[in-house]
Design goal:
The chain is α/β, with parallel strands linked by helices. It contains 10 helices and 8 strands.
């Protein structure tokens, strides 16, 4: 039986505002009528009054009572960032793996990642009872530490040395995995993330990552 050669490298991306244009929690909150409340919680987190887990749990709490049918509605509104199909195809053609790790939710990331040909993914999971969101998170929260662990774990599973890993993100929650990777790329990122990254892309087109990896141009 033939054995597939090991992956040559691993690229891991954040999802909200990186792989996609949107913040999924905001799309869900729009259905719940809690968009302004979610925005207020986000601002408190940005001022340092809440850490990521606290802010996530508070924002998810505003979704209590939504029917799980909302996932289908929101999935249709998600806008994939320009250049994602080209990035995935380019990484695969060069025998690399591509993963996404999200502070968002499996209920939406699963279908998106499958459709885009992503190799690995991890996200939070919303608690549902009797077809209705409870306002809680099922299991541990995917935070900055979990994102770094996903990067390291996927690299180890695939036999990819950390010296051949790339992390792409836009927010403070991505900094740990970006520091762990051999190459970090800030994508249309907040100033602090841009300053901490090895490279920055300021145009919303993820195919621009390919020349940074020596795969095009």
């Amino acid at each position: 039986m033939s054995v597939s050669p090991p992956a040559r490298f691993l690229v891991v991306l954040d999802v909200d505002s990186t792989l996609i244009h949107d913040e999924v929690i905001e799309l869900l909150a729009a259905h719940a009528g809690t968009g302004q409340l979610v925005a207020d919680i986000t601002q408190r987190a940005m001022r340092g009054e809440l850490d990521f887990e606290q802010s996530l749990r508070e924002r998810v709490g505003t979704l209590r009572g939504l029917s799980e049918s909302v996932f289908g509605d929101v999935a249709g509104r998600i806008r994939v960032t320009d250049g994602v199909p080209e990035l995935v195809a380019g990484v695969h053609a060069a025998r690399g793996l591509i993963g996404v790790v999200s502070g968002g939710f499996h209920e939406l990331v699963d279908g998106l990642a499958t459709r885009l040909g992503i190799d690995r993914w991890r996200a939070n999971r919303l608690a549902v009872a009797d077809g209705v969101l409870t306002g809680g998170v099922d299991g541990d929260v995917v935070d900055a530490v979990a994102k770094e662990r996903a990067l390291r774990g996927w690299a180890a599973e695939a036999g990819v040395p950390m010296t051949r890993t790339v992390a792409i993100g836009d927010g403070a929650n991505d900094l740990r995995m970006m520091r762990a990777a051999a190459l970090s790329v800030a994508f249309c990122a907040k100033p602090a993330v841009r300053a901490a990254a090895d490279l920055a892309i300021d145009t919303r087109d993820l195919s621009q990552v390919l020349p940074l990896l020596g795969l095009r141009g």
